[in-house]
Amino acid sequence: MALGESIFSEENQQSFDLKSALFKYVRYWYWFVISVLVCFGSAFLYLKFSTPIYKVNATLLVKDEKKGASVGNEMLAELDIIGGSKLVENEIEVLKSRTLLQSVVDQLNLTVSYWKEGSIRDVELYGEESPIKIFMISSTNYAFSHSLYIKVLKGNKYELLSENKNSLGKFDFSESITSDYGKFRVFKNPNSTYKNEDPIKVVILDKDKLINSIIAGLDVALLNQKSTVITLGFETPLKNKGKDIMSKILEEYSFASLEDKNREATNTLRFIEGRLKLITSELGDVEKDVEQYRTSRGITDLSTEANLFLEKVKDNDSKLNEVDIQLKVLEGVDRYLQSDQVGNVAPATLMVSDPVLTSYISQLSQLELEREKLSRSAQANNPFLQTINTQMKNVKQAIKENLGNQKSGLQVTRNSLQALNNRLEGAISTIPRKEREYVEIKRQAGIKENLYLLLLKKREETALSYASTVTDSRIVDVPFDSGDPVKPKKNLVLLVGMLLSLVIPIASINIKDMLNDTVNSRKEIEDKTGIPVFGEIGQKPSEEKGEILDVNSRSFVSEQVRMIRSNLSFLFSDLKEEEGKVILFTSSTSGEGKSFVTANIAASLGLLDKKVVIIGLDLRKPKLHEYIGVGNSKGVSNYLIGKATEEAIIQKTNIVNVYAIPSGPIPPNPSELIMNGRIKELVDVLRQSFDYILIDTPPTGLVTDAILLAPLADACFYLVRHERTPKQFLRNLSELNKKNIFKSLSVIFNAVNYKNLKDYGYGYGYGYGYGYGYGQAYGKEEVKKGFKNWFGFKKK
Asked: What is the pTM of this model?
């Protein structure tokens, strides 16, 4: 036994057996073949039937004072253009704002899509591919959930079809139509490349849902945290449609940016144009008055003194007009500050002379633009929006204080100029009456003329600034597509298919093993019990009739029984040769082949001219007598109750040198009879007459009879049946071994189905490596045959 335990210890140290792990799965090779076909077939079908998705990308550079100073234009700086750097984070939100994308949807008419029906999937027609164009004047909820069809007819007509392709009428192109779908017009596309005569499927989308889907599919992000370059990405099944959407987004963004920057210049131009219209009318009237006065009074020119007074008055009036214009501009600024309506545009600053006030107004204008952009995508309680409102309030307060100071200074200047005018008017009164009246008229004409020239100058400056306005962003990369589809990724889908084709069968095999709670391999027994397997017995060949094997045959199972017989000598090397050896056979539960193995080992020992007696001590469910063909009317139970002698219960069998003591009538108290001490007397008597005493006992997992008989045995064979014995009983077997209940406890692995053992790395040569080459081959040759049967090969 020391040798066996040593061998077992060495084998148990091998924690992983690659061959066993490999053959565990190789046995189910056809599962892998089916899985590969199904998974790769599914992958190819998915690639064939799924709609390829492409990604359209673009790159935008935004000037941000926090992330890099922009290079200013000197001429624009001299003209005091309101430029302004942007927060690049805000611009990202603006690019994804609903207001911007709604304009894109409206201009590209994206709420209407056109489709060609296909056998596998419908194909969207875009641009020149579609033979028609529909412009929805108004749409209904019915249109959002029901498609319609349009069939182009000869001439300038088309037929309108419902979702079920029922005719709704024939109409002329460009004719206004009102239906359940809403009010719309259908136009023929003269540049269409569509040649099919099948009806075109038209899908009308809800604008809000479409905008939401575009926002969800639009990827806007910084290229990196240190730059102000924004990357835009949009996934779409149509490259051209995606490029058009991306281009329109950039176009609308640039237009909105320019519009924001030109609002001040626009307001200034509006103010100057209004004043010019008024001054032009007044100037014409005054010039007519000068002409009429000179004609009626016969005055051709003024005296030197009058001209001197007139020049002084003109110069003073020009200064007075500039002051009045400044006051009007400040009044406009004051009116803006008094209004709290959201969205009001800050007044023009091109005509404000004070640089401090100009800076304040510019800052207020920039804050107003930022608030307007942020309000498109943020709630009213947004912290950043509240911060901007607080900053605007502080700037407005500073402007009010500056306005008060400016107005006070301008009012003092105006009073001084007005006083000088009064003194000049007093001096003019000393000249002759005709010249005095002519000077007054000429003076008014000069005032209007100077004011007119000033306004013309300011209008040109404002127009130049308007024309010179540039956006604070620049397109770095125009929209371009990814070339190959980004979804589905062919290599990824095939890789997933390949992995699934391996994972599914491997997982199925492992789950099958986990759900199988019976013992399946020799290694499993040795690992969980620590007891070496003494021998194996395969399933009984179909050609064997009866329960007793032909021990003289060369079958594989017969050879296994002979191998166990040969190894018995190692178990009893310490016992005296002349004494009979007692071997106890037990198992965990019924049906594991104790009686079958006991009878066949006895028959094998009998061939060696050894006298063998079998004692049937399974007093509850006796079967031994049926296997060896003896009667059961009198047996051990009679002996134990003292109603039979040893000679009376021993029966001769048909097997050479094999005798039997059947169990006899089933007693009501088997355990008590075994404990009465007579069974020991019987065994002692049999030791003197027989070489081997084999005791067939009931299972240890059900009753304690085998444990009660353990002291009588010199060795114990514990039977574990392949694919029958529950794994949980291996724990009980391990406990019995640790407690040394049985002497020389060994395991016989019974009824082994070697075909199913292949998934554990065993073939027909498994066991002790025998196969001597005589008679019928059952060793190496059987492995070869089994290997061929695995893969479906047959001998020709």
From this structure: 0.54
